[in-house]
Amino acid sequence: MTTPHPSLQLTTxxxxxxxxxxxxxxxxxxxxxxxxxxxxxxxxALEVEQIIRxxxxxxxxxxxxxxxxxxxxTRDELETLATHPDVAKVSIRDLPYVIARRxxxxxxxxxxxxxAALAGIRVFVTGGLGGVHRGAETSFxxxxxxxxxxxxxxxxxxxxxxxxxxxxxxxxxxxxxxxxVVVVGSDEFPSFYSRESGHPAPMRVDGADDVAAMMHAKxxxxxxxxxxxxxxxxxxxxxxxxxxxxxxxxxxxxxxxRGIHGKDITPFLLGRIVELSGGASLETNIALVRHNARLGAxxxxxxxxxxx
Length: 308
Fold this sequence. Notes:
It is a single chain. It contains 13 helices and 11 strands. Helix 3 (40-54) runs antiparallel to helix 4 (75-83). Strands 1, 2, 3, 4, 5, 6, 7, 8, 9, 10 and 11 form an 11-stranded mixed β-sheet that branches. A hairpin with a 2-residue loop joins strand 3 (58-65) and strand 4 (68-71). With 308 residues, the protein is of the alpha/beta class.
C-alpha cells in the first residue's frame, strides 16, 4: 500500500478505504468548474460518485481548495467548485502557483493523475483525454495529459481523445511515450462524442479483468507510466462522427477568429459545441461520464482482487 503524501488532505471515507485496501476511483474537477453549466455540473458530480459507490468502490473527486490538494470532496466543496468565480483551471505546471497562493483550483486530467498517484489511487475516470491540438505543427499546443500518461502510474478511463483534437497525432504521441492505449469492446478508437474516429484500436480488451491484468503486468515490470483505457460512448447516446464534425469545424473557426488560445481553447470549444448542438453534446458528455464511472468501479475492484 502507498502511503498518501503528507501535503494531501483526504476525506475520512477515502483515507479509510485506501488504508483497508478497498477499491478507490479518482475523479477530476475541471469538468465541474469549466466543463458544464451550474447546476448540472453538481448534479453530474454527485451522480457519478454514487455510480462508483454502487459499483463497490469509493469515489475521490480531486481539486485544490484554499491551496490544499483535496482527495475526496464534501457536497459543500463541490458547490464551491461549481459556483465560486475564481476557480483556476489547474494543470501540472499550475499546481505550485495555486497552492502557494492558497487559491482554488479545478484539476485537469494531468494534475488529477499526479495527485491521485501521490494518494495511492491507481484508477481514474474522466470524460475525454487531452492531446495534440489541430494545427500543433505551428502552435505547439499539446496537452500535458500526454506527458503525464507517459510517467505516472494511473489507469485513465475516458471515452477517447476529445474530438476537437488531432486524434491521429495524439495516438502517435502516446505510442512514442510508451503509453498502452486499449479500447474496451471495440476494434475502433472512439472520438469522445462518437464511437468512430477512423482510427483502429491500438489494442482491444473486453472487460475490467483484462485491463487490471495489464496494470499488474506493466507496473510489476517497473514500466512507469499510465494506461489509456478508452471506453466508447454507448451507441444510444453517441452523436455520429459526421454530424458532430460539422459543429466542431464551425467552433474551431470561431475560436481562430476570436484569437482564443492555450488552456482557454478547450472550455470555449466544448461550450460552443453545446450551443451549436442545441444541448445534445452536453447530454452525450454526461452519458459517457456515467458509462466510464461504471467501468472505473469495476476496474478498481478487479485490480484489488488481482493483488498478489
